[in-house]
Structures are given as structure tokens and as C-alpha cells.
Design goal:
By secondary structure, the chain is of the alpha+beta class. Helix content is 17%, strand content 48%. The strands form 2 sheets. Strands 2-1-5 form a 3-stranded antiparallel beta sheet, covered by helices on one side.
Length: 71
Amino acid sequence: PDMSEGVRVVIVEFVVSRDGSVKEVAAVFGSHSELNAEAVRVVKKSPKWKPAEMDGEKKNVKLSVPVVFEF
């Protein structure tokens, strides 16, 4: 696809583990392989997240987030 101008969105799915680390990162929607790879790279390098808690116990949670690229 032409990436000369506009907005492209990649949906990235990943797990935030009980210790806040990000794992199982994958692009689940995106129209350009280079943008998909960059979105995955950025999410993998993110700092630790706050883990989910249920009844005071930390849990793994799967999230999907949009990564927006503007040209």
C-alpha cells in the first residue's frame, strides 16, 4: 500500500504478565508488514505495565491496543 500520507493503524495483541512484563506480542491487524513489525517492536520495548489484579491477586491479562502511524 501507498504510505505517502495519511494514517495507518496496527492492532497489537499482547499479554501483560503478573510481574508487569510484556510477552506474546503480535500484530493481529495491519495493512503493511513493515508497520506491523515496527508496532510489535515498540510494544516489546515498552516499560513494565501495571499487572491486572483480581481479589488482591495479580493476574496475566491479554490486551489489544491500536498503534497509530501518521504520515
